[in-house]
Amino acid sequence: MGVRVRDLAPDDRALVREALIHCGAFTDEEVRVALDMVEAGLAGDYSLLAVETDGDLRGYACFGRAHLTVSSWYLYWICIHPQAQGLGLGRMLQERVEDRVRKLGGDRLILETSGRPDYERARRFYREAGFVEVGRIPEFYRPGDDCLVCCKVLSAGDG
Amino acid sequence: MGVRVRDLAPDDRALVREALIHCGAFTDEEVRVALDMVEAGLAGDYSLLAVETDGDLRGYACFGRAHLTVSSWYLYWICIHPQAQGLGLGRMLQERVEDRVRKLGGDRLILETSGRPDYERARRFYREAGFVEVGRIPEFYRPGDDCLVCCKVLSAGDG
Question: How near does any CA of chain B get to the CA of A132, in Å?
Fold first, then answer.
């Protein structure tokens, strides 16, 4: 299996959309917001990385510098197509995001995720990557659905 | 003293800019981002309220619905001109923001502020308004400058 991480390109739009819809983690509104951010990213507002196997796009990540900070970045989305989950592509993408952030002068990565039981897999993914929960906004998304704020300090020796 | 809270208007731009620059709390970059958000707000992306005394603009607030949530809102900026501080205008503005958010279907307000010692006055303002610290991102803004995440649940009986 030839795996490659590269910058996302305008031609990837359709496959990104398919991955978002079929990965099962996102509501219609979340897919719409994610696609809006892909457009904004292609226009230069966010950074976008794609992962492909044997030339086929399998997932992507969207991240960007946090305004008004010296060196904090947000990781907004990581999405892997359901047919390509379990292969370690998400981990590879997350590590390459961290490399890119470091290269651009960032030294910490912040993300927000849901406290719902069905997000446990995502939370474990981030915990194992070294993210630490630094906040919890009660019922942020909707009743019973907290927002967890997680942070990872990117030491120079990582990656 | 005739005090009035009203929607911010395009003609208020210059006085908003003056209030931001002279209130002393904001860096050049913060003023620029705040003004960008005023422009976006005037274009409909955020909500903006102004407070005036005897017809003169004295401060403003910028707030908006949190994407991907049912009823959470962010309070992005409250700024009172230094010559008008200590008169309770900030409190009045914050309460009117809460009224507006409730009217638009919101039931909680989230804000981020600095953990720096010179922000203690701002933090006290929010604590006294009923905001509770729900997170702290270490060194988010810069070394030694944490981000505090604060939340207030807007009960129907408030205001």
Answer: 10
Would you state the structure tokens that stand for residue A97, as one six-digit string?
Answer: 């995001």
User: With an 8 Å Cβ cutoff, is B28 touching chain A?
Assistant: no
Token pair 């960007």 is found at A64
CATH number of the domain within which B149 lies:
3.40.630.30
Q: Which helix (H) or strand (E) holds B139?
A: strand B132-142
Distance, CA of B107 to CA of B70 (rounded, Å)? 9
What's residue A158's pLDDT?
46
Structural domain total, chain A: 1
CB B149 within 8 A of CB B112: yes
Instruction: Write out pLDDT tens, residues B64-117.
Output: 999 999 999 999 999 999 999 999 999 999 999 999 999 999 999 999 999 999
A68 CA to chain B: closest CA distance, Å? 6
A157's tokens: 């020796």
Residue A159 included in any domain: no
CB of B144 within 8 Å of a chain A CB? The answer is: no
Angstrom distance (rounded) from CA B1 to CA B41:
28
Q: By C-alpha distance, which of A122, A151, A154, A30 is closest to B149?
A: A151
- Entry pTM: 0.93
